[in-house]
Amino acid sequence: MTYCVGLKLDRGLVFAADTRTNAGLDNVATFKKLHVWEKRGERVLVLLSAGNLAVTQAVVSLLSEQLTSETTPGPTLFSAETMFQAARVVGSAVRSVKAIDGEALATSAENFMVSFILGGQIKGEAPRLFQVYAAGNFIEATADTPYMQIGEHKYGKPILDRVTQHDMRLGQAAKLVLLSFDSTLRSNLSVGMPIDLLLYNTDTFAADRQKRIERDDPYFSMLSEEWSERLRIAVSEIPDFEI
Amino acid sequence: MTYCVGLKLDRGLVFAADTRTNAGLDNVATFKKLHVWEKRGERVLVLLSAGNLAVTQAVVSLLSEQLTSETTPGPTLFSAETMFQAARVVGSAVRSVKAIDGEALATSAENFMVSFILGGQIKGEAPRLFQVYAAGNFIEATADTPYMQIGEHKYGKPILDRVTQHDMRLGQAAKLVLLSFDSTLRSNLSVGMPIDLLLYNTDTFAADRQKRIERDDPYFSMLSEEWSERLRIAVSEIPDFEI
């Protein structure tokens, strides 16, 4: 499993991904699930991945190879004119990998289970955020639901659901996303630190604000403790239920 | 789906169950999933059920019929001398129903999917809380994890996880359980109001504190709104994340 979140806000985008992959409980490793393609001053694209690691790595490699290959037929992540086209490029890459590996996976009783969050900005457009499915089709985040989650999404959803507001500062939204991760990490062993974070400010066309939150990160520890304490206080301040 | 919670605290037990059952999205009904057997002054037993409604109803009917039947071989919920024995009675009832219906369910591609939370107190013992599986075996709640959840448990777990304390008052714990339900109701259509609640105070041997929380319950509405507001304040008070 995995947990990844993308948020689309007035001031930009926030991305976060855990780094745990596992084949069974006794085969655990750390792999980056947050991938960035940047053409400074012109576009930034961020892809978060969940599911079968062989498949997600193949998709990411394909997307990267297309950028330098002279035989790529359609647009690439660097030549797509809009984020919608870029989402199509990712969808096509997923379909290509399925065409190559899908049948063999099926005969090994492995499912072609993958999902992606794609977000970013291409000059001429506002930032956009998509979720790409294993079939290569996708949906786009709108004002009604400005976030996308993939992987183990249930534990961390209530906090996003109640607190996310489109006019939040990115640092505030990142805090919220980390709280959502903390709830998930406490409950699901298949989601693990470190967490990769990327904050993208609208119209900067640069992916400079990236950080890996390690297990002993003092901010994350403070956040987790403060949050538990404040929840306890908040619960105690609301009148008790009486029968 | 379903969502049920049982909590074991120093002062007693708290039980809550939603009432939605559904066969597909377009066939929704209300059924009670919180069942009480009381021998006033001597024992109170509470059973929460999740899973296939035909199976859970059969188990509950069997447990009730045993109380008046003269041919019941082993102990019943009223003659069991300990809660451990009572959990065995429930487990046996599950196995009996499986023996009768299991094969037919399997041939209809239906799983024998059920789970139960059993809690209560029998004179001579402290209150105890169990989770009974579809196989009829069970586990007991201990101080390390004083709550049990069945059904759609993920959305509502983080709040229980962080705030539950063994020395809470029952009304405070009920508030916490209702918050856990609110998070779940917001995210999963298969969990629905009304919610049945039962608070059991240690050594009372009476099941008097029961209430059904309806959709328009003023306390529940207040709780949900206050909670969202306080979470927003709590998030805003913790320092923002900075890169």
Automatic annotation (TrEMBL), chains A, B:
Its GO biological process annotations read: proteolysis involved in protein catabolic process
Q: Does the keyword Iron-sulfur apply?
A: no
Q: Which Gene3D superfamilies does this entry report, sorted A to Z?
A: Glutamine Phosphoribosylpyrophosphate, subunit 1, domain 1
Q: One GO molecular function term?
A: peptidase activity
Keyword list (alphabetical) reads: Hydrolase, Protease, Proteasome
Q: Name one Pfam family in it.
A: Proteasome
Gene Ontology cellular-component terms for this entry are:
proteasome core complex
**UniProt-recorded name of the protein:** Proteasome-type protease
Q: List the source organism.
A: Stappia albiluteola
Traced from the root, the source organism's taxonomic lineage reads:
Bacteria, Pseudomonadati, Pseudomonadota, Alphaproteobacteria, Hyphomicrobiales
